[in-house]
Design goal:
The protein has 294 residues and is an alpha+beta fold. The chain is built from nine helices and 13 strands.
């Protein structure tokens, strides 16, 4: 049977992401998670659907990719087709065709759960790229006392989240226009079709000021939940707020029925690696993106 490549419509977004959720398992490696798509939805439902690619055979969804920019494809495959030759060959061919998924030139693919595809791409000249460290915290037992005070972020506190997030990832204080744009993106996500799976928390200091933030994403009861993103205000690093908000994020995921809390950090980001380890997450073997030279 032939394998069909398509870009889903907005009306299909919740359905295909729901199918992606069923592929998440503690027995498998960390691959594209519904939370990755949910976080991308800060750009809006139309842009999110347009960034997805799906591969199906006889009406059954087999693989899904998120174009996180023009030259990065983040992939997940259904667990029972991780070693499927036909699927691997078709995805590899689509990646090689400038009219398929990505344009010609340099590109990166996250294919952690797609064993056969990874081998096929290596045969086609793709090479290991950036290293990532996957982390997992088992949630079969209660998380315990939280090391920091946390509150849930709602629309009224979106500006608090936005200021911390901007500082954590940009290293500066946002202008009023920049802050407004980031708030608008958070609200776009919170009002979008994937928002039911998300919770956002902020860690507070003794005075009630926000120090760190994290958003968590459920894949459904009994499945791993994702932390994406987590950040600490640049002026308050080194005081345990990142560890605290990561523990709190795990606790929220347990309340949502998750079997574990997962996150993947750049191995070169020693601060993030240390933070998740301090928060009780166990590091798995490092995994590399696959890169194609330009």
């Amino acid at each position: 049977m032939s394998i069909d490549l398509r870009t889903p419509d907005v009306a299909d977004l919740a359905g295909v992401v729901g199918e992606l959720a069923t592929w998440q398992s503690d027995r498998a490696g960390l691959q594209l998670h519904p939370g990755d798509v949910g976080w991308y939805s800060t750009r809006g439902a139309d842009a999110t659907a347009a960034a997805l690619r799906t591969w199906s055979r006889d009406g059954r969804l087999l693989a899904m990719g998120l174009l996180d920019g023009p030259s990065l494809l983040r992939l997940a495959v259904a667990p029972d087709v991780a070693d499927d030759d036909g699927l691997a060959d078709r995805i590899a061919a689509d990646l090689a065709d400038p009219r398929g998924v990505m344009g010609a030139g340099s590109a990166s693919v996250e294919a952690r759960g797609a064993r056969r595809l990874s081998a096929v791409l290596a045969e086609h000249g793709w090479r290991p790229g950036e290293l990532w460290t996957p982390f997992r915290r088992d949630l079969s037992a209660p998380v315990g006392d939280l090391p920091v005070r946390v509150e849930t972020v709602d629309a009224d506190r979106a500006a608090v989240w936005a200021a911390i997030h901007w500082s954590a990832f940009r290293g500066t204080e946002p202008s009023s226009d920049e802050l407004r744009r980031v708030v608008d993106r958070w609200r776009t996500m919170a009002e979008g079709p994937l928002s039911a799976a998300a919770r956002t928390v902020v860690a507070l200091d003794r005075d009630g000021d926000g120090m760190a933030v994290a958003t968590v994403w459920s894949a459904g009861p009994g499945r791993p939940g994702l932390i994406e993103p987590m950040g600490v205000h640049r002026d308050h690093r080194g005081h345990g707020y990142g560890t605290g908000v990561s523990v709190a994020a795990a606790a929220v995921l347990r309340e949502m029925g998750a079997s574990s809390a997962v996150v993947c950090a750049e191995s070169s980001n020693v601060g993030a690696v240390a933070t998740y380890a301090a928060a009780g997450f166990t590091a798995g073997p490092q995994v590399a993106d696959l890169e194609r030279a330009g």
